[in-house]
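Handoff note, outgoing to incoming analyst
You'll be picking up this chain. Sequence as last confirmed:
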Amino acid sequence: MISAVVAEFNPFHNGHAYLLSKAKENCDAVIAIMSGNFVQRGDLAIYEKHLRAEFALKNGADLVVALPAGWSMSGAENFAFGAVSVIKNLKIAERIVFGCENDSLSLLNKTADILDSGELNLKIKDYLSKGVTYAAARQQAVAEIDGKCSEILSLPNNILATEYIRAAKKLSFPAEFLPVKRIGVDHDSDSIIENVASASKIREIIKSNGDFSKLVPENILKQMHNNEASDLALIDSALLFKLRSFSIDNIKNLPDISEGIENRIYECIKTAKTFDELCNKIKTKRYTYSRIKRILLCACFGIDSSFLKAEPPYIHIIGATAKGIDMISAIHKISDTPIIVSAKDSLSLDGFAKKVFDTERIADDLYALSFKTPKNSGGALTYPLIKLN
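Most recent structure output, in case you need it:
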């Protein structure tokens, strides 16, 4: 059996190592579907994607596949749909392993079924009319049907777990699911319990030059110390310059735009002096800070609503162990989705696939400027496959 794990590894830590170890149990190999240089909260990954791929390979993954920015910077539903699409299109993974706060597969399945029920949509619209966020409206609507399922939707990893299940059903992908109960601390927790902390806490420690040595696997600690963390503030001017070039019509076609928010965005762009200030000016009860960041970054990369109507059109493999190299050969034989392993593979892409890859290239080039010592452009075309023996 081959397992697949979806993660950001932002950064890789002991909790991720535990998840990969559980995925490895009773299994021949593990594939990690990993966000690229931009992540779901609408932010930069703290370390470059190839470095994070290497960390995963050193700690249990056999193959690392990058999830393109159009899906990695989406809300939970589209993020999960993109990731599960990639897993399905690989044609070799049979099991999806995910971390969650509640590891009751029956309850997660029941919650997914409720979310796909027709009666729920009318209830959600009613709550949305009261001005709450979509996530809150959905949770309150589910509470009217089943209180335990509503509790599932109160925690972020549970939400993603139900979305993986929903995506597999939507794609008619008969995957086996293995929920792994999250250890130590909650998502985004500020606490540290023994050698486990949330990714957000570790990012905070890294950026303040604190000691995170007990919170990450020892075999990657030196590399983490030797590599500079990205900083969104360093690309403020580039982001604002790009955003000020947009018309209202450009903004209307962005993912997740509705209810006239494009007018608010257009006006705020004119006066904001930093990207953070812009996001704070635009945000509302319905449009959270992270949601606004995702929308604006999508604008900068040329990601429009068409991305969310389709599956990722190629499989971009960025790292492999010796076992993973053998898996690449197997994937080439059985998958009918374009496979990118080296730069030359991208040259044959056309249509929507070329559009998505070009978007990823733009995102990578912007990411390269987010360091005190900017990196060279062209990373998407020049970075070789990470190989570990």
